[in-house]
Amino acid sequence: MFKKRSSSQAAIVGLDLDPGHIAAAEVIANGSLSLKRGAVAELRPGILRDGEVADVQALADALKALFDEHGLPNRVRLGIANQRIVVRTLDLPPLADDKALAAAVKVQAPDHIPMPMDEAVIDWQSLGTVETPAGQERTRVVVVAVRREIVDRLVAATHAAGLKLEGIDLSAFGMVRALRAREARGAVLYVSAAGLTNVAVANALGCLFTRAAAGGLDAMVHALAERRGLTVEHARQWLQHVGLQTPLEEVEGDPDLVAAARATLDEGVHQLADTVRNSLNFYRMQDSAEHVETGVLTGPAVAIPGFVEALSSQLRLPIESAVVSAQDEDADLGRLTVAAGLAVDDVS
C-alpha cells in the first residue's frame, strides 16, 4: 500500500506505530520471516491517539532517538492502523491487467468508500480470480482508503526524524505477512492486542478484512495502574506475573494486588472478545465473507500466561498465540511481530 518502487537491496526497516510503543524490525525473508534486529521504545501517552498522530514533533523525536540508539538503517516502511481507515472487498469483472484493474477500482470505489475522494488516499490489492455463488468468475480486490491528513502527519513525523519513507502499509497486512501459514486452508482470524486492538481476516491469497479498535492490553495495564496506584511498568509486570492460569492462592505477592490483577485481566479479556466478535460480525455481513475456522493472537498479550486460552474460550474459536521467529530469545517478539511483517512486501 502506498509503496515506492525501488531496485535497491539496502535493508528496509518495518516500523509499527502503536499508541503505547514504537517497534522497528529488520528481517531476513526466505519463505518465512526471521527477525534480524529489533528495537522497541515506550511511547508516552498523547503522541498517538487511537492510532493517529497527535503530536508530530514528539513522534519525530521518539523515532530519531530509537534509530540513533540502535543504529538502525534509515529506510522504513511504516504501518498504519486506526478506526478511520476504510477497507472494502470488491468483486470486479475478470481483469488481469493492473492498469485495467486500477481503472475499475477508480470507478467502483466511490460507491463503497464513505469519504470524499479528494480527501482520501486510496490503494488496492488484487486477491486474484474467484468464483461467485452464482458461478461467475470475478477479480476480487481489497480496497483501502484513509484520509490524506492522517497520512500527511505520518509522513511529516518520519521526515522530521531523518528517516527515508519507502512506503506506508496497513499494520494488519504486516501482521498477516508475518504470521500467515502458506499451507493454511480457509479464512483465519488474526488479532494483535497492544495499545490498539487490530483485527484481520485472511486466507492463503491475502487479507480479506481488517478493523482497528480502541482498547487492548494497554487499556488493562492502565486500568490496573490507576486502581492500585502503580506505575505503568509495574502494572504490566503484575499482569504478566499473575496471568490467567495459576490459581490465585498459588500466586506469590500481596493477595489484594494479585486479585486486582486477575480481575483486570478477566474484565479485559471479556472486553477484547467483544471487540473481536463485533469485528467478525461486521465481516460476516459482507457478501464475499468466508467462514473463519481458527484464529491467531499476537502482540504483547501473548506473554501473559493463559491469555490466549481465555480469549479462545470467550470467542468459542480455536486460537493460538504466535510471534515472528528470531535468534535472540530476549527480543520483545510480541511487539516486534507486526513490525517484522511491515519490513517486506512479500515473505517469499
The major β-sheet equals: 6 strands, mixed
Tell me the strand percentage band.
25-35%
Oligomer: single chain
What's the helix count? 9
**What is the rounded distance between the termini?**
18 Å
Mean of the pLDDT scores? 90
| Structural class computed from helices and strand pairing | alpha/beta
Radius of gyration: 20 Å
Shape assignment:
globular
The helix content, as a percent range, equals: 25-40%
User: Uncertain segments of ≥5 residues (pLDDT<50)?
Assistant: 3-8
- In the sheet with the most strands, the strands line up as 10-6-1-2-3-16
Number of beta strands: 16
SSE string, helices as H and strands as E: EEEEEHEEHEEHEHEEEHHHEHEEH
Describe the protein.
The two termini are 18 Å apart. A hairpin with a 5-residue loop joins strand 8 (120-131) and strand 9. The strands form 4 sheets. A 6-stranded mixed beta sheet has the order 10-6-1-2-3-16, with helices on both faces. A 5-stranded mixed beta sheet has the order 13-12-11-14-15, sandwiched between helices. Strands 7-9-8 form a 3-stranded antiparallel beta sheet. The longest helix is centred in the C-terminal third of the chain and has 30 residues, at 255-284. It has 348 residues and is α/β, with parallel strands linked by helices. The protein is built from 9 helices and 16 strands. Helix 5 (217-228) packs antiparallel against helix 7 (255-284). It is globular and about 65 Å long. Helices cover 34% and strands 31% of the residues. Residues 3-8 have low confidence and may be disordered.
Write the layout of secondary structure elements.
Elements: E1 13-18, E2 21-29, E3 33-42, E4 48-49, E5 52-53, H1 56-70, E6 75-80, E7 86-92, H2 98-108, E8 120-131, E9 137-147, H3 148-160, E10 164-170, H4 171-179, E11 187-193, E12 196-203, E13 206-214, H5 217-228, H6 232-242, H7 255-284, E14 292-298, H8 307-315, E15 319-321, E16 325-326, H9 333-342
Parallel strand pairs: 1-6, 3-16, 6-10, 11-14, 14-15
Antiparallel strand pairs: 1-2, 2-3, 4-5, 7-9, 8-9, 11-12, 12-13
Helix pairs in contact: 1-3, 4-9, 5-6, 5-7, 6-7, 7-8
